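Run log, item B.
One chain of 86 residues. Sequence copied directly from the ordering sheet:
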Amino acid sequence: MKQGFELDLDLGKRHIVIQRRYEALGAFNDLLIAIWFLIGSFFFLNESLVEDGTWLFIAGSAQLLIKPFIKLASLVHVGRAAPKRN
């Protein structure tokens, strides 16, 4: 019986490329969320733009829902691309 934690990594180039694409997609999604919330916050400083600001907050909140789907898609895709063990 082995003691401790053993990590056996066999990452192919394809695995890394897929992982990095999902990381880039997640970072872009996070950037858009920040933009919607920042602009929406400024819109709340002007009474005539409050409704538009509210819509930006709704858009940012909807994108927060996208985050776990990007992560799940990444896990599934990377899992399928991982080298098979015999």
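Observations after the first pass:
- The chain has a mean pLDDT of 85.
- The chain has one domain: 13-81.
Flagged for discussion on Thursday.
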